[in-house]
Amino acid sequence: MIEHRYILEPYKGMNTRYRCPSCQQRNKTFSLYIDTETGEHLHPSVGRCNRESNCGHHYTPKQYFQDNNISFDIPQPKAYKPRPFTPQPKPASFIPVGVFKQSLQIDITVLQVAETNHFVQFLINLFGVEVASQLVSRYFIATSKHWNGATVFWQIDTQGKVRTGKIMLYSPTTGKRVKSLELPVYWVHKALKQPEYELRQCLFGEHLLIDKTKPVAIVESEKTAVIASVYFPQFIWVAVGSLTNLNAEKCSILKGRTVTLFPDLNGFDKWSSKAKELSHLAIFTVSYLLERKATEAEKKQGFDLADYLIKDDYKAFVLSEPETTEHPPADQPLVEVIRIKQPEQPKPESWEHDIFELENYFAGIVLPTQPVKLNMCSIITDFPLFIESHLGTLRDNNGKQTFLPYLNRLQELKRVLTINVY
Fold first, then answer.
1. Contact 343, 256 (CB under 8 A)
2. Strands of 26-184, DSSP E
3. MF terms per GO, please (predicted)?
4. Which of 129, 143, 148, 242 shows the smallest number of beta carbons within 10 Å?
5. Can you give the pTM of this predicted structure?
6. HEC states along 221-254?
7. Are 239 and 220 in contact (CB under 8 A)?
8. ∠ CA 213-218-223 to the nearest 5 degrees?
């Protein structure tokens, strides 16, 4: 095992990040190399910019020594000494349910939410009130007072536990993220000032994976996942948060599923490599649509799927044919190019396992005494009647696709009750 003398400085807050000498971003995106023997920085120019797609500056210690005619001795391998004790990882921390509920502003309409949430206002302008309301409900899009008009994208796992919330500010007219802030991304667990918080991130939208009937689509940004879910509802859309956040820990929940990756422009090669690394978890396919359609200017700007989708009316999208392998004309509308075939899923002949899980779940909880809004069209008032009638229908029509909505409604109710602890 070779121990490197010069390493990138570990992250210990924004004081350990600097302005990149290449792209000169106002935000601190540059990591410096340090000498592990002295703890000092090697040189202000020796480091790496984390804006991989848009900058890519990386000046290594070896290059620095060569450019300055300084001798550089490669460290010799040292004998490996096994550590006598490996501490167990700390259990993950979770956001209190009260904080989560308060951010959702449950008792007001989506139009009222839009007054204090710029991203929701953009969704209303793009899709209308009804669709925007469905998106807010489906992804639990919330509001933060950290910045005026800021949005919270909650990370909720399949157990209904809130891992953290990502706070960002968007333009209500363009839907673009506001990057002029000193810290364009902030976190709820930091805002709560919990120094012992053990963060274990999950996929944004992971709570939707309780539905096992659909294939999964992964994008980088939360905004793109929300928007794409309207254009392509045959997928469950989730986000990893950035180009480098596609990893085994976040994707472990996808075991055995069919997944399509939609990287931003300039991210195709990196995610193609990652797809191979993660192939033991799921069946991964990487979409190359954007790489083929993009102009050089769009590649430099790092366009993502949402930037193309919002150019077209979502009602015009007809999903029937597989994605073409031919090069589409540059001026051809995206609606005529993106024809994504839903991967063939094994159709279950029996829902016995799902019915058994639901029966055990509802038998083991205290049902709410107040009405609960399941979705835009359904409000449940008599829970025992609703649950038993649905379970009875499923038992009598086990595996018949016509009755799949009964299963979906019970699974949705389980998800709502798990997240909202009544």
1. no
2. 30-35, 47-49, 58-59, 142-144, 150-156, 162-168
3. type I site-specific deoxyribonuclease activity
4. 148
5. 0.62
6. CHHHHHHHHHHCCCCEEEECCCHHHCCHHHHHHH
7. yes
8. 110
